[in-house]
Amino acid sequence: MTTPRTSADRLGRLLNLVPYLLARPGILVAEAAADLGVTEKQLREDLELLWVCGLPGYGPGDLIDMAFDGDHVTISHDAGIDKPLRLNPDEALALVVALRMLAETPGIGSRDAIERALAKIESAAGDLADAPVAVKLPANQEKLATVRAAVDSGHALRLTYYTAARDETTDRVVDPMRMLTVGTFAYLEAWCRRAEGTRLFRIDRIDGFTELDEPSRPPMEAVPHDVSGGVFRPGPELPLVTLRVGRGGRWITEYYPVEQVVKEPGEWLVTMRVTDLGWAQRFLVGLGPDVTVTGPPELVEQIRAAAHAALDQYAAP
Amino acid sequence: MNLVICLLSTRRFLTAAQIALTVPGYEHDPSDPRDHEAFQRKFERDKAELRELGVPLETGTASIFDQEPGYRIAQREYALPDILLEPDEAAAVGIAARLWQHAGLAAAASSGLAKLRAAGVEVDPQATLGVEPVVTVDPAFGPLTAAARERRAVTFKYRVPEVDDPSARRLEPWGVVCWRGRWYVVGHDKDRDATRCFRLSRIVGDVRAAGRPGAFTPPADADLIGHVAHSSGPIARNSRATVTVRHGRAAGLRRLAREIIPGAGSDQLIISYGDPEWLASRIAGYGPDARADGPPELRAAVIQQLKELAARHEPATPAVAS
């Protein structure tokens, strides 16, 4: 998965290794390897190479020198490489922008520490800290802060939660695991005692909660979701719906995971998976007049029948 | 490695010939043209490698009598300035470095973190901050931030969903903005001669640099977030709707209500709204479980949408092969 090791990569690693070890006399080789994100074998190979590096003259006293004591290593001569190289533009960008993101994340703890760290990294990065990236994450998240405070208390929570798929608001007891923001939304990930599974609860759909006296105790089988590919990743077991989408509704293909888009002139033919046909009806009709459902037939019939029944309510008595 | 150590240790500029005499690995016979050429190629390659790593290689001459350029590395330019982070600050940096899901940025963040560790910073890999942001970026992020930093114009193809074909754009990028989890670039659109923002996910294909670095200066008072927020600001909800919903149904509408008046068989909701068409679509989605009672503009919008809905979903509608 890592990028191919070039000799520049290795040189960068070696230049970093010397001051790293210098700052930690007697460190365990395995600990250093874990810290620096390399294998122990790789680190030992790098150390071998350091033996033959040093100042011109290349005699004893010029070469980098190390003392080994079992698996512990100490640098005894650094040959002038006593400090790491400056951050390069990409490193400065990646760290500065990530810290700005953290500082902007609603409900996050230690905001003060984040801002102090950001100021110090910016000062160390010099001109490069002026990263041309501004960050503004979802605003209006007082609720996130209150939920987070409850999660921090380490107690189980009773949630009043709106489930869009079933269009119902229900109470349930959950054991909080973590909170996260993905794209536009913030979530609480918790073990749901009613569903007996790990669930992601969108914070804006938590309509109320109370902190219970008992501690949060997610069971062993409670495993966090991998959300790197998005929160809703529909599987092949879910029903497919097909839509004709007019110009004004094309934006839905940017916001929702779709299986296929056939771009016909004028209207697009869109295929997407939905958790539930009842939800699909509310959701797709709710998107307005640019969306027409073409399949499956039972959904089309359901929408037609519901529209007629709804119209009957407006008929003059 | 030895080249870096040698050039860091010298205050005098060293010529290629002097370096060849000193640094192991460069031994060659300068009088043999092929051998000398091989040395020069290797030396050029190594210099390029140092610059790629960001090692500040200075060129100059040791004295006015020297013809050949010499090289050295200024320790002050080379070294990361001293950085002392408190444990909570170091924890924040460690968490920040884990934020990126994008391979390139993740690698840059972890090599940056390794430099901080080498500067003596101890980072607790287990630290958390209570909320984990999961950040994904579009492929255009890298080239656009680089161009904004270098103040270099770019060209790219941009596709707006409502328009069939992507259009070519020429932009002087001022900066990239993350607004509510989505990425935008703000800058001067050279064709429209105006400030514009573009969503990164709508950029099709590669972003290409066009022209020289330093070609423009962003306005000193440019409010990048303001430009993006302006085009997608909040909607004022000044109108008030009355909607009747059946008992135990339409939970999604009930959540929108500022007030619920219970009744026999059905309840009445009072909902604040801005865009009647938007609310009408929501109400239509609940079919016979919800009825818009007023104001008339909303009631009319719901009836109109329901009529169109019924017509568009009649079996007579030519079915599209799926």
TrEMBL record, chain A:
InterPro entries: CBASS_pafABC_assoc_protein, PafC-like, PafC_HTH, WCX_dom, WYL_dom
Residue ranges annotated for the WYL domain, each copy included: 143-209
Residues covered by the PafC HTH domain: 9-122
Domain of life: Bacteria
Domain annotation WCX: ranges: 240-311
Annotated Pfam families: HTH_PafC, WCX, WYL
Matches recorded under PROSITE patterns: WYL
Name of this chain's protein: Protein pafC
Species whose genome carries this gene: Actinoplanes siamensis
